[in-house]
Amino acid sequence: MPLAIIGNNFTSEWDARASFMLKSALREALDSAELNEDQIIRVFKDMAGAGDGEGDGMVDFDEFKTVIRAYGLTEISVADLRAVFDLLDVQGEESIKWLDMAISFYPEFKQLQDMRSAEEHDAEASYLRGSVRKSRKGRIGRQKSSNRIKGSKKRGSKCIKRHKSSMGVEDGGLTVEDMERLLGAWSSQNRAMTRLEARVESLDHSAEQMMECMTEEANELKDTLAALCEMSERLQSKFINTLKQQISGLDDENITITSMITKGYGSLMKGLTGTYQTSQRFNSERFQS
Question: Start and end of every EF-hand domain (predicted)?
Answer without folding.
Answer: 39-74
